[in-house]
Structures are given as C-alpha cells and as structure tokens.
Design brief:
two-stranded antiparallel sheet; alpha+beta; 2 helices
C-alpha cells in the first residue's frame, strides 16, 4: 500500500517525518522536494479555514442547493456571450 506523509529535509539531508509512520517491513520511498519551509509561513491551513467558515462574515448565509449552484455556474460561464440556450429558471 502506498502512503504519503509530510516531512522536512534539513540542509544536511536528514529527513524528519511530521507524523508517525508505522511499517511492518522495510520499504522504498520517493522524496519530492517542495518549497522551503519558510515560504509556508502565513499560508492557510485547515484550522484557519474552519475559523473563517465560523466567522461572522459567513454566519447567517444560506446554503445553496445543487440546482442553484448549477444555475449560477451556467450564468457565469455564459455571461460573456449572447448564448442563452442553457439558462433555466431556478426557484
């Protein structure tokens, strides 16, 4: 089974896993080097997203159903043209 875990690699090449990884036997691995750790500062994470969704800005907003979302997408997709064959009324 292929697993992915986050890790940091120091300039000395030492790999430090950011979460536990339990293997029953020795395995091969592929390492993909991403942006520097310092570049990650200030980027959003799940906790920040949940806090934003719970903020006053989003409170009281109603959820749209699939038909309303589809209608909005179609309206935006075709806003640039005169074509209106796919438009429909959504209650």
């Amino acid at each position: 089974m292929i697993q992915s875990v986050e890790a940091e690699i120091g300039v000395d090449g030492i790999v430090v896993l950011k979460e536990p990884l339990f293997l029953a036997e020795r395995r091969r691995a592929v390492v993909t080097v991403l942006e520097p750790v310092e570049d990650m500062a200030g980027k959003s994470n799940a906790k920040q997203v949940l806090e934003l969704l719970d903020s006053m800005e989003f409170r009281g907003t109603s959820s749209l159903g699939p038909e309303e979302i589809d209608w909005i997408i179609c309206e935006n997709r075709h806003a640039w043209s005169e074509w209106s064959g796919y438009r429909r009324n959504v209650p």
